[in-house]
């Protein structure tokens, strides 16, 4: 897909055979224009797919000081925390933010891209490239500053990204649970069509195998990062025989969904299962029991993404690949095998 260069008011005026002032009067309804001229202007607007740009109107620099942020799931607590960091930094630099939530819908994502481009935004921050590889490549080709945050840019050369070392995070979770004496494990994955889910899964399994854990003692349950999938995964886990003793969820949201299901089934945590999440969202410390989790610096991810994007807009063309280190935050959702709780 190739994005068409946006038509301007002069091109509309030329196509309609009128002055730019007449086009402005028709579109803004600031003065009466004859039905005949109005029809010609509107026809030209439709033919050229012209979209008036309220942000750029009257600005000689052609800059809107507006950034688009495309996220995949506003219901995941990870994204509001990161969005706050992005907005905080942009506001400090005099930029505004347009937030677009795709709900992981590819067509919705594409429509948001077109909306942002029609508004003349100065740059785009993505948290997912599910809008399509072709669309992202087209944006890069048009030299529109953009950056991916939270995931690696798989298969897209030239797209900068800022990410936590998700593979290492999976290894940290496995090493911690193994060190507590656990030998039967479950991993509830995130979506496996992106680097985040795949790397957390691989890191967890690789570390367990290095520790000598047998493949039959590592059970994989498919999730999708949503709280509801953690709730459903808990039901599947309770059917396993023998029961595992340790569960690693690919994010905190799913772990919290599972805690709800376990509570409904009168399953006591950590007496029955030791549970580790990933992200360290704020609510993870407030659930019962407080969740042990692999922590990533959510605020820093967002802040760095905003910083780098503004740097691109201001002329720095250097592409970046920044990888942040995860750490373990111990709380009350895990126990050592053999310990009385």
What's the level 1 CATH class of the largest domain? Alpha Beta
Helix content: 40-55%
- Detail the poorly predicted runs: 54-61
State the oligomer: single chain
The SSE order reads: HHHEHEHEHEEHEHEHEHEEHEE
Count up the domains. Answer: 3
Number of helices: 11
The CATH topology assignment of the largest domain is Rossmann fold
Radius of gyration: 25 Å
Spell out the CATH superfamily of the largest domain.
Answer: Response regulator
The beta-strand count equals: 12
Q: Give the neighbour order of strands across the main sheet.
A: 2-1-3-4-5-11
CATH architecture of the largest domain: 3-Layer(aba) Sandwich
Indicate the structural class.
alpha/beta
Shape assignment:
elongated
Look at the structure and give the mean pLDDT.
89
CA(first)-CA(last) distance: 59 Å
Strand portion, in percent? 15-25%
Largest sheet: 6 strands, parallel
Overview of this protein structure:
With 341 residues, this protein is of the alpha/beta class. Helix content is 40%, strand content 16%. A six-stranded parallel beta sheet has the order 2-1-3-4-5-11, sandwiched between helices. The chain is elongated, with a radius of gyration of 25 Å.
């Amino acid at each position: 897909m190739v994005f068409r260069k946006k038509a301007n008011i002069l091109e509309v005026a030329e196509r309609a055979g009128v002055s730019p002032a007449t086009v402005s009067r028709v579109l803004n309804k600031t003065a009466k224009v004859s039905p005949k001229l109005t029809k010609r202007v509107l026809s030209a607007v439709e033919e050229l797919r012209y979209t008036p740009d309220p942000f750029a109107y009257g600005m000689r620099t052609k800059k809107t000081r507006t950034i688009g942020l495309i996220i995949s799931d506003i219901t995941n607590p990870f994204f509001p925390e990161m969005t706050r960091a992005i907005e905080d930094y942009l506001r400090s630099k005099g930029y505004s933010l347009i937030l677009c939530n795709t709900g992981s819908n590819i067509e919705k994502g594409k429509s948001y891209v077109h909306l942002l481009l029609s508004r003349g935004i100065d740059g785009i921050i993505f948290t997912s490239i599910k809008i399509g590889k072709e669309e992202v490549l087209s944006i890069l080709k048009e030299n529109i500053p953009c950056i991916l945050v939270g995931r690696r840019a798989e298969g897209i050369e030239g797209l900068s990204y800022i990410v936590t070392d998700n593979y290492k995070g999976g290894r940290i979770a496995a090493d911690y649970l193994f060190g507590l004496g656990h030998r039967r494990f479950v991993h509830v994955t995130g979506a496996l069509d992106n680097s985040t889910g795949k790397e957390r899964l691989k890191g967890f399994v690789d570390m367990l195998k290095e520790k000598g854990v047998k493949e039959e003692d590592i059970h994989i349950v498919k999730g999708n990062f949503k709280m509801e999938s953690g709730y459903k995964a808990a039901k599947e886990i309770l059917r396993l025989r023998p029961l595992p003793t340790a569960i690693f969820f690919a994010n905190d949201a799913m772990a919290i969904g599972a805690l709800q299901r376990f509570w409904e089934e009168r399953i006591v945590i950590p007496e029955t299962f030791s549970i580790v999440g990933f992200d360290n969202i704020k609510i993870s410390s407030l659930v019962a029991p407080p969740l042990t989790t692999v922590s990533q610096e959510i605020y820093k991810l967002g802040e760095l993404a905003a910083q780098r994007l503004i740097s691109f807009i201001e002329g720095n063309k250097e592409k970046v690949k920044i990888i942040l280190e995860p750490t373990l935050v111990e709380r009350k959702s895990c126990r050592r095998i053999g310990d009385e709780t």
